[in-house]
Please model this.
Amino acid sequence: MRHFLSVSDLSADEFRGIIQRGSEFRKQFEAGITEALFPRKSLAMIFEKSSTRTRVSFEAGIGQLGGHALYLSPNDTQLGRGEPLEDTARVLSQMVNLVMIRTFSHESLQQFCSASSIPVINGLTDLLHPCQLLADMQTYFDYRGDIKGKTVAWIGDGNNVCNSFINTAKLLDFKMRIASPAGYGPNKGILEQGRSQVELCNSPNDAVDGADLVVTDVWASMGQETEANKRTVAFADYKVTKAHMALAAKDALFMHCLPAHRGEEVDADVIDGDQSVIWDEAGNRLHAQKALMEFLLNQASS
Ligand code: CP
Ligand code: NVA
Model:
């Protein structure tokens, strides 16, 4: 039985296998084919934070695989009245086949996982967003082939998505150049583990120079709303513009996990421009996560 709390829970071969399978699922979906490979399997989804893509892709995904999803908000479950995470995990393990959780603290996810006897999927924590990286890598591979040896420029906050990018750089052997304002860099432990792949840059221009993929995300993540004004000042020079894209490789792609703020972390003419692949990136959440659920359900039954 396996969990997916981090990209680092997979081997490189497993990760590559899942995104390849995700591409197959995408082709089938576009051809109008959905196979009920896991009839009557159920996925419980616990969301402490808001979501559009993660919720819809998991809910639609398990449905297309023949199963169904349950949306659980802390407000209307006993979690909101203080029932321990571990007790909730033990109960859900008796009733469903998979759990996806979006939490604030990564420790809450680990705590839940420690008591779960069914596979647990990280649907985003303050520390990591590994499902996003499955979709991002599926998208890159579909457009450009293997990312091994390529260079990814990350501009902006060293947040959960950035941390998962670093883990993926290590796993799939690509380089990352990260430009963040002082004090807003990635997690130090993750940076340490990925140090062979990562270069910290002094400016967005240094990071994007010749890069194959340019990525950014919001300046204030969920849970950081009260810091938004302070961050707007700190990140003023970290907006991805056309001028940055012109410094990147000619065939560079642009990605953003969404939701985005046009005119803040990225200009509209970049995110809505020719090099942007954000809609495929978002759409691939569905296909990559179907492949992930298939992998975890197969592991659990073998
Ligand atoms: N990218 C992403 O995870 O989006 P949601 O917050 O809408 O799920
Ligand atoms: N870094 C963002 C990602 C949202 C999908 C956040 O945590 O809010």
